[in-house]
């Protein structure tokens, strides 16, 4: 969808970094019922070439699906060659509603997918320093930098905003997609009013509730904070529980990260 007109708008807004996602598996992503991946790939490559030509930084997320589980290292090499100057993020697929394409994975499958890649990454981490969530775990556990992604900071309350194509405002892109939280419309409310909306306060209160409930005594709290509150809402219909993704993180750390690195978590 990217074109020169968008880039000119981004420049006027002082935006010089663009995030996207990418899927190399055939016929999983693309236009039409058959998901034309040939067209999708050609447009994607044109888009990133355009970004680089105009000196925009860019990064991407790879969404791990059921179809990706059979070849983790093959996909890792493909993705790492796609952007030699930087890294990417490996996220589990989040299925909206019914899983018609049968692409959903369990938290254990996600942990094992990461675990199949991690020994190679750890041995060659100087070559691939920007691959997450490996990078995030190393920084938090070994380097103690506390550089969590937005879903793990426990501090997204007043730091994010989503403004949709019609001006509708929400907490973030996912909240807007799922129509979970509405802060009104930018044509009716100032950005200051949207950013200080009282609904945001519930995300501050969530930390105290989790520390005295679902996450009490959890050794991974400082670099997880119960995960994204939106994931909590999917399962519990409220924001005040830890997320289902916590189990995947725990399994990866205890089954792969700690044994392979030889690191022990300081209590």
Q: Could you provide a short overview of the structure?
A:
This protein has 267 residues and is mainly alpha-helical. Helices cover 40% and strands 8% of the residues. The chain has 10 helices and 5 strands.
List keywords for this structure.
3-stranded parallel beta sheet; globular; two-stranded antiparallel ribbon; 267 residues
Q: How would the global form be characterised? A: globular
> What radius of gyration results from the CA coordinates?
19 Å
Q: Can you summarize the main beta sheet? A: 3 strands, parallel
Q: Report how far apart the termini are.
A: 48 Å
**Helix/strand order, N-terminal first:** HEHEHEHHEEHHHHH
* Count of runs of 4 or more consecutive helical residues: 10
Poorly predicted regions: none
Please state how the strands of the largest beta sheet are arranged side by side: 1-2-3
Beta content comes to 5-15%
What's the total number of strands?
5
Summarize the amount of helix as a percent range. Answer: 40-55%
Structural class: mainly alpha
Oligomer: single chain
User: What's the overall average pLDDT, rounded?
Assistant: 92
């Amino acid at each position: 969808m990217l074109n020169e007109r968008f880039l000119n708008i981004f420049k006027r807004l002082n935006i010089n970094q663009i995030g996207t996602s990418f899927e190399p598996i055939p016929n999983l992503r693309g236009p039409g019922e058959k998901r034309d991946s040939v067209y999708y790939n050609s447009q994607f490559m044109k888009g990133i070439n355009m970004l680089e030509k105009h000196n925009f930084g860019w990064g991407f997320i790879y969404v791990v699906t059921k179809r990706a589980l059979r070849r983790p290292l093959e996909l890792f090499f493909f993705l790492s060659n796609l952007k030699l100057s930087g890294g990417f993020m490996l996220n589990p697929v989040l299925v909206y509603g019914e899983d018609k394409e049968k692409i959903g994975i369990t938290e254990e499958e996600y942990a094992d997918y990461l675990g199949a890649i991690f020994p190679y990454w750890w041995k060659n981490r100087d070559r691939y320093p920007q691959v997450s969530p490996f990078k995030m775990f190393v920084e938090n556990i070994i380097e103690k930098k506390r550089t969590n992604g937005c879903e793990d900071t426990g501090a997204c309350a007043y730091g994010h905003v989503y403004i949709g194509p019609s001006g509708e405002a929400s907490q973030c892109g996912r909240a807007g997609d799922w129509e979970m939280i509405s802060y009104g419309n930018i044509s009716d409310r100032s950005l200051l009013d949207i950013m200080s909306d009282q609904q945001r306060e519930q995300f501050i209160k969530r930390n105290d509730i989790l520390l005295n409930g679902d996450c009490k005594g959890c050794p991974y709290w400082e670099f997880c904070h119960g995960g994204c509150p939106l994931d909590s809402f999917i399962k519990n219909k409220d924001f005040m529980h830890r997320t289902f993704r916590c189990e995947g993180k725990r399994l990866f750390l205890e089954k792969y990260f700690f044994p392979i690195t030889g690191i022990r978590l300081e209590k």
